[in-house]
Specification:
By secondary structure, the chain is an alpha+beta fold. The protein has two domains: 89 residues, no CATH class; 44 residues. 31% of the residues lie in helices and 13% in strands. It is built from three helices and six strands, in the order βαβββββαα. The radius of gyration is 31 Å and the shape is elongated. The two termini are 50 Å apart. 10% of the residues are buried.
């Protein structure tokens, strides 16, 4: 969870002198989703003021899964903000190589198995009673009945 929370607080901005109960609420909400406030690798402002006399602030925050040793720090990029008054935040997410075993069922073209499969389909179509298809409801009933029959036959 990341974004511009528009909350100034000394919990994440050591140059701001006050603490707010709203910040406590934000931390509690994040915690309820098992998220924790990240500390940046390079602490500094995330919002840069264009107004004379107004100081830069830290109002853009990043929360990630609690207890993750690989996702416990993020970076602030003040030089990459272009025309925005907010600095982008980034986090490196490690991705491990993983082999995912998968299988697919294939009927070899031209095989006896393919011939039997098509024969079963043709027989099923031939046995369909289509004499009473005079409405969408009747069509759905026939299709659903046939589908449930097919599942029953597969279990046997």
């Amino acid at each position: 969870m990341t974004g511009d929370f528009n909350i100034r607080d000394n919990l994440w901005d050591p140059h701001f002198p006050f603490h707010s109960s709203i910040s406590n609420d934000l931390i509690m909400i994040a915690d309820s989703f098992d998220l924790a406030l990240l500390s940046p690798i390079n602490p500094g402002p995330t919002r840069f003021s264009d107004t004379v006399g107004e100081s830069d602030s830290v109002i853009d925050l990043m929360f990630l899964r609690c207890g993750s040793s690989k996702l416990d720090r993020h970076s602030i990029h003040p030089d990459s903000r272009l025309s925005s008054n907010h600095a982008p935040l980034t986090v490196d997410i490690p991705i491990c190589d993983e082999i995912i075993q998968s299988t697919k069922l294939v009927i070899t073209p031209g095989s006896d198995q393919e011939k039997e499969f098509f024969k079963d389909i043709f027989v099923s179509f031939a046995l369909l009673d289509t004499s009473n298809i005079n409405s969408v409801e009747n069509l759905n009933s026939i299709v659903n009945h046939q589908s449930s029959m097919d599942k029953t036959c597969q279990k046997i």
